[in-house]
């Protein structure tokens, strides 16, 4: 177990490229900030997975159902791994994290506070929102000084890359489809563009400790800017319109510039007061209650029998 | 054109969920049949799991890679259902890469698990379902890291 005299000593260790491990006597400030960050990430994976699940029965065709099944399993699996890492930090146990989430006392990504109304919405989520989440996760993985989190992120980032390919494939199908399909995607884009851009959050406080401790490798505004530079030309290339009358290419800045962003919708989601927050949280809570029997079976040693069977004894 | 060029092309395809691990190292390749006269190649692969969502993507990647081989104008992939994939089909390199880069381990014949992070033998199963059909979830109480296990 490593220990540090004070925060300056700890900062020097981080600046030197140090990696914190679960057994280290890390400063309380680091422990609680990193815990909150991972809990938010875990909650978001779980809420995102439940959205993917909603679309399994509605996805058109067996192959797309299979993809949505797999994505659901991915996201729920990611949540599971992240809750393990978070719970181990000793701030809050796993059950309390879940109970807080289902009681509306926790936060999760803004994009899961909106309703996906049509299949095209779900494709916009796969194409735009997953890409934003992926960019933000990759930026955390890039440095990430908390070892157990970084190891889980390695697999999450690899799998999200796979989701991105599915998102592109599904978008292409609509983009090259009929006028009605293109219209459906345009309407979905109108609903999802701003939530996706806002996922990165408002400009970072330069003194954000998560930046100093290298959990975040880049400030929010840099990630948001890079995302806009990539997705504006991409959506234009498919001949879709971005719902921002002030969007323009600035020759001096050599960049796409958007309207000033209204952060009120994001703030509302962080209070669980977004357009679909209530239904989403109630649905997740009902899911938790409905699956109590699985946890009960697990408590009675189903896993032990599985390990024995796997070993062929 | 040589059959080994086709093999190299297949080996250049990486698993969509392990972006730097070759599908050949993962043991997916069963056989390659090259018909030089017809300038065609057939590649037989085995899925790690039936219902793996990456199959269409892997097949597409393999076909595209094989078509870059000089002398090949048509390529097809078929998924064999009469061959069963298990972790013994993985190369040593793939097993090591999964352990060191992805914190993914394999179950020993006696059912025990070794932690890919700290080497402890105390790893315990947590959940049969992991983020992927082919993996389950375990926990290492020694270094306190979640560990994923390739399911055979």
Question: Which terms summarize this structure?
Answer:
heterodimer, A: 313 residues, mainly alpha, Ferritin, B: 152 residues, alpha/beta, GMP Synthetase, Chain A, domain 3, 2 domains, 4-stranded mixed β-sheet, 3-stranded mixed β-sheet, 3 helices, 9 strands, elongated
Description:
The complex is a heterodimer of chains A (313) and B (152). Chain A has 313 residues and is an all-alpha fold. Chain A has helices at 7-15, 28-54, 62-88, 94-102, 119-143, 147-175, 179-198, 209-212, 220-237, 264-270, 277-290, 292-299, 302-310, and strands at residues 248-250, 255-257. Chain A has one domain (7-260, 273-280): Up-down Bundle (Ferritin). Helices cover 66% and strands 2% of the residues of chain A. Chain A has a two-stranded antiparallel sheet with strand order 1-2. In chain A, a hairpin with a 4-residue loop joins strand 1 and strand 2. In chain A, helix 2 runs antiparallel to helix 3 (62-88). The mean pLDDT of chain A is 94. In chain B, the strands form 3 sheets. Chain B has a 4-stranded mixed sheet with strand order 6-9-8-7. Chain B has a 3-stranded mixed sheet with strand order 3-4-5, with helices on one face. Chain B has a two-stranded antiparallel sheet with strand order 1-2. In chain B, strand 8 and strand 9 form a beta hairpin. Chain B is elongated. At the A-B interface, helix 3, helix 6 and helix 13 of A face strand 7, strand 8 and strand 9 of B.
